[in-house]
Amino acid sequence: MKRNSISKTLKTKTTMKKILYLFVALLAATASFAQTKAPLEFQESKFSFGKVKQGVPVTHTFTFKNTSDKPVVIESATASCGCTTPEYPKGAIAQGSTGNIKVTFNAASPGGFTKPVTVKVANETNPIVLNIVGEVVNTTGAATAATGGAKATTAKTATASPKATTAKTATASPKATTVTAKTKTVKQ
């Protein structure tokens, strides 16, 4: 009976050692993956343009440094849509060297925007994501916004000629984004 008890105790200890070794190996593997950092260190990963005029493209340059112990090659830098165009260095970036990724946004449509640019580095599984944000404002509606919603205003100008007088009336309404002009010719 004692022999059976000793045998069970030894089997339990052996199993516990195996579990402990497995746990330590798993912990070491997790720690090594957690310490992996991107080979390129960017000064910033997000840039805000603030308010930009519709139809006027804007550009920002993201600066990075190769912090790895070997040269790095950027395989691609892709935007989420055709309204954003990234430009990146095509050759190897030496250890300790700096470089730039220039991102241009066309600002064609009014409204807020957040545009990610995904940077894929050779031999790296995780891409680096840069973001540009801002708000495109419609410049034709700016005159309406400047009036603060005031009632329609009328401006009159007249030019005199010996035979006729031309009067122009322009009316701007805070609810409309267009300005209408009326021209009358009055004979004297």
Give a description of the structure.
The chain is an alpha+beta fold and 188 residues long. It has three domains: 1-35; 40-137, Immunoglobulins (Immunoglobulin-like, Sandwich), CATH 2.60.40; 148-187, no CATH class. The chain has two helices and twelve strands, in the order αβββββββββαβββ. The protein has helices at 2-34, 142-146, and strands spanning 40-42, 46-53, 58-66, 72-79, 84-87, 92-93, 98-105, 111-121, 128-137, 153-160, 164-172, 179-187. The strands form three sheets. A five-stranded mixed beta sheet has the order 2-9-8-4-6, with no helix packed on it. The protein has a four-stranded antiparallel beta sheet with strand order 1-3-7-5, with no helix packed on it. A three-stranded antiparallel beta sheet has the order 10-11-12, with no helix packed on it. The chain is elongated.
